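Hey, can you fold this one?
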Amino acid sequence: MKYKSGSFWRTLGWVGASLLPVTGLQAQETSWVIEGAKTVASVQPTMWGIFFEDINLGADGGLYAELVKNRSFEFSDPFMGWELSGKQISDGMVRVLNERTQRPTNPRYIRIEANDLATGGLELTNEGFRGMGIREGRQYDFSLLYRQVTAGLALTLELLDDSSKVIGKANWRPQSNAGGWQKGSVSFGTSGGAKKGKLRLTITGSGTIDLDQISLFPQDTWKGRKGGLRADMVQALADLKPGFVRFPGGCIVEGHELETRYQWKKTVGSVDDREVSINRWNNEFAHRPAPDYYQTFGLGFYEYFLMAEDIGASPLPILSCGMACQFNTAELVPLDDLDPYLSDALDLIEFANGDSTTHWGQLRAKMGHPAPFQLRKIGIGNENWGPQYVERFTIFQQRIKAKYPEIELVSSTGPFSGGPGFRYLDSAFRSMKADLIDEHYYAKPEWFLKNADRYDKYERTGSKVFAGEFAAHVEGLTGSDRNNWRSALAEAAFMTGLERNAAVVQMASYAPLFSHIDGWQWAPDLIWVDNLNVWLTPNYYVQQLYSLNKGTEVVSLTAMNVPLTGQDSLYASAVLDRPAGMLIVKIANVKGVAAEKNIQLNGIRRKGKTISETRLQHNDLTVFNAPGEKPSILPVTTSRSVSGKQLKVSLPPYSFTVIRIPCHLP
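Sure. Predicted structure:
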């Protein structure tokens, strides 16, 4: 994703008709027709997925459950996130040392050298990521790396609530005088909770000790994995039942310059050896600066693959093609120097799919996953454009297909949804018979309504489309209020066109995924969080309704022999779900009055006399599910009896309805 001004997008023609309430005539009483015996296309298992990028504190401070910020003192300011205090402090008592030669990926640590420190004499307090979310009555795991130079120092750990009251406490003392770095740990419980708590370490005694990787995790992580992921955030993803997970982005794939691009090999192996990097969203937006935004890569490629497997989704990693962000430096790797980037792609396939006799497959097995991750697709480049991207992608395509012909490659049409740049890339990749072409669109809700028929015009054969990043952006709003019902309803209408054209569009994902209410850079976002809570947006529920009702085959749904693409402000699509024996109809009514429709079922018979309807609806398009408040928009499911040869449906104003009809499928 890239930040663009409204004037920029207007130059690309990203405008549409105004989304205005209609208060006049009711919908025409024309019957709709579903041809249940005539399938139009198969729906891919990967049709509806999720896009993850470490933006808005999405990983560190979000999905990755680590509570300590700058745990290894590797930020540009080694003590960023830490406060040093106490009456006994003297110059040189706490020093930052750097052993770049001996410890190249994690060179910094602190040395504490003290004589006769009394209780409370030296305190190190960590503020966490906009505070620490602490839950009452839960267990927490503290750990650190230490090297004892001279014995005699001990630590007291205290968790502090929002008012600095102690709500958890433990003592830790080095267990060995052996030289070299060792791991220390202690677990303890809490007597209270905090939304923005802190961790305080008090050092007492006499001696010299080196400390690094000072860490605190809740024990109730996703699946109880030590040093794992935040359970409630992963559960929100699992509840979407996504077909795929795209990771790690997004613009962090490219980097502000090539040095800060995402390098997957630095994110696997021991967490203690993963090299910290500045996050490219650290200073991207002057109006939302985040100088403390770094990537520790505790959530790395192994963890992404594992999470995708956990929630039943196919992994879709995106790799650098040797081009930094073209909106920033546009730094390029010369074609003659592209081999390391090509090796990254080939080695990643081996890491994901190779057996334990291969170099990278052996590392995966050593990390705890002997079985392959069943990687089937990878993306080459993110929102890159121009001839230089095409020539680099061509080389990747040749090299990867020569060794792994079964791997599908995703190419990009840049940040454009139309215009000369888009047409050039689309034509180039189709001539190359690219497997999947990634299209992105961030635009007004009106654009999504106007373009609901976008893929009706695409060729049915050849390269397929991955709608890799999309979201409706309402102008005049700035934060979580951008995820209002106007935006979600427009997306629901647009997605009927994606579903109807499953012969063309095989994957789609909203973006971005997560946003921390105290640390966001970009809005709108699918899921908003703070340190303790998760809030699901209307947009989330739209995505969920599509994913839970994906079906297996598209069937024709028409009115007056044409698809429903906005006639009388109604948008619709239909699929069969053969395993469930179900016909599923999705309808968006984007106007301010109700509509009554009769649906004629041809070539298919209903089974039983009951259908279910799940609906999102609100009469006010500006409402949103505000963080900290009761949700304004939630899906509501009802059942009703039906009779006769035609199905009568009522569509409230400003509504998205999913109808599940048990049927005898042909």
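The mean pLDDT is 93. Let me know if you want another pass with a different chain boundary.
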